[in-house]
Amino acid sequence: MNLDNVFKKTRQMMGKNYISLNPLKPEVPRGLLRKCNKCGGAIIAEDVKKSYYICPKCGGYFRVHAYRRIEMLADEGTFEEWDKGLSTKNPLEYKGYMEKIDDLKEKTKLDEAIVTGKAKIDGHEAVLGVCDGRFLMASMGSVVGEKIARAFERATQEKLPVILFACSGGARMQEGIVSLMQMAKTSAAVKRHSDAGLLYISVLTDPTTGGVTASFAMLGDIILAEPNALIGFAGPRVIEQTIGQKLPKGFQRSEFLLEHGFVDAIVAREEQKETISKILRLHEGAEEGQKEKLFSDKKDLGDFDDNRISVEPSFRQKEKDLTPWERVQISREKTRPTGTEYLERLFDDFTEFHGDRYFADDKAIVGGVASFQGIPVTVIAQAKGKNTKENIERNFGMPSPEGYRKALRLMKEAEKFHRPVICFVDTPGAFCGLEAEERGQGEAIARNLYEMSGLSVPILSIVIGEGGSGGALAMATADEVWMLENSVYSILSPEGFATILWKDSSKAKEAAGVMKLTASDLQKLGIVEYVFPEPDHYTPDTMDEMVDMLTKSIVRFLSVYGSMEKEELLEHRYRRFREM
């Protein structure tokens, strides 16, 4: 007896109480189940909707309709749609195009492939734009370009940030060269918005390709991406056909772009509202009255000499009977707090941003935005690892060109949004290797020195461990440089010094004695302004006193330099180095 006969006989025996067991024809209410296009599993549609359109079995992401995306992000009842009803044209008189547009309008209930408007996100007002892939794969035709340009123009007029969720197959073929021109139009609108000092957050979803990637989608001050989203200029099939090779697994996915320095962070869908809300908050400026309070009480800050912070007796360096070489050894101890631990202990709401936007994300430098005593700041740290695995991952704190370019990108963003910059220096030196030279290590360091000298916001650099050569100076062209008692700062390592001058690296101990590289020596030379005493055994467990001293001193620094006019600040910084 075949299977169909078995089912037939079973139905006859069970009568009305029969429930089909046939896996090919399940009796399930229409719309109850969906098939995941990632893992192929059957999933309950309602559960998916409640779980941010994520497959509960494999974690794969379903594409989200524009209005549902807005629902997930905006505060309830706050979304005000803009430019609804703009009509699509047919500049090439492409046969069947308008009929296709009319059909899609009927099916999707959308006028075009993007919805724009204004909303609040946890109370923060912002302009939203959301592409919808159901409408010709959210390809960018003239109406899409027009709505994006108008959204940025109105955001500029109303002084609002823009958050744009990209999802697109690229330029719209049916509109030809007119579609191509939308790339320039939208980019120009983004530029005007940026020149007005306003924030643009771009969120890349699956897929973001073609002319959209090569225009507004990759121009955000901050670029976020959903996990495993396809992001690229040329599609993978086009690339494979062109080069005649199979592409590696994960190529052009979000994680690939993060590794190669093109996105700031990958944010899970369920965390997007919280993350975007925090970024908006950190870009709105100081908490109400906090900055004014910080800058107003100068009379309580102690004595000043040429706008430099005067060191209180309780903060003065404790003189210990240690040789310079012993201090070098202490500065290199694996148990010392790393740069990331200062970021965690001194600041609130630290949000890390990745990548140089050119080649890679160098993990030897960690940076982003944070809040210090209610004031938004940009913080950047050269970071060693806490164990062998982390040290290898962070290249033992030796930055490549990408690290310095990432740091500079964050500093320029700080300048745009009027945030002070606080750097933590701890590197044996810039990475000297074949790849670093190929990618312009010298140029990257030089560019940092050049740009930092003219940055129109206060810059503070603190040497917390090793300050090795130009690799340290590229993060220390600042208004003031401070050092911890057992940190060192020198032209290069004692081993390198001994090798170059005496042709014998084993004389590093003697070299340390003549290099004047200790904090005490450098303060006497006028290279650093401030030296902090350390506990006898300085570890993350004994950081409390140091954190307290640094906090008080950073408040003082911001009080002085944050109240300076731009010209006064730049002149002071220039004179600081000019007189050395």
Structure overview:
- The chain is of the alpha/beta class and 580 residues long.
- The protein contains 23 helices and 20 strands.
- Strands 3, 4, 5, 6, 7, 8, 9 and 10 form an eight-stranded mixed beta sheet that branches.
- Strand 5, helix 5 and strand 6 form a beta-alpha-beta unit.
- Helix 5 packs parallel to helix 6, helix 15 (401-416) packs parallel to helix 17 and helix 19 (494-502) packs across helix 20.
- It is elongated.
- The model is unreliable at 13-26 and 298-317 (pLDDT under 50).
Keywords for this entry:
23 helices, 580 residues, 8-stranded mixed beta sheet, elongated, alpha/beta
In short:
With 580 residues, the protein is of the alpha/beta class. The protein has 23 helices and 20 strands. The strands form 4 sheets. Strands 3, 4, 5, 6, 7, 8, 9 and 10 form an 8-stranded mixed beta sheet that branches. Strands 13, 14, 15, 16, 17, 18, 19 and 20 form an 8-stranded mixed beta sheet that branches. Strands 1-2 form a two-stranded antiparallel sheet.
Topology, element by element:
Layout: H1 3-14, E1 33-35, E2 42-44, H2 45-50, H3 66-73, E3 80-82, H4 97-108, E4 114-121, E5 124-131, H5 142-158, E6 162-168, H6 176-195, E7 200-209, H7 210-213, E8 222-225, E9 231-232, H8 236-243, H9 254-259, E10 265-266, H10 272-282, H11 290-296, E11 304-305, E12 308-309, H12 324-331, H13 339-346, E13 348-353, E14 365-372, E15 375-382, H14 388-393, H15 401-416, E16 421-427, H16 434-438, H17 441-453, E17 459-468, H18 469-473, E18 480-484, E19 488-490, H19 494-502, H20 508-514, H21 519-524, E20 530-532, H22 544-561, H23 566-578
Parallel strand pairs: 5-6, 6-7, 7-8, 7-9, 8-10, 15-16, 16-17, 17-18, 17-19, 18-20
Antiparallel strand pairs: 1-2, 3-4, 4-5, 11-12, 13-14, 14-15
Helix pairs in contact: 5-6, 15-17, 19-20
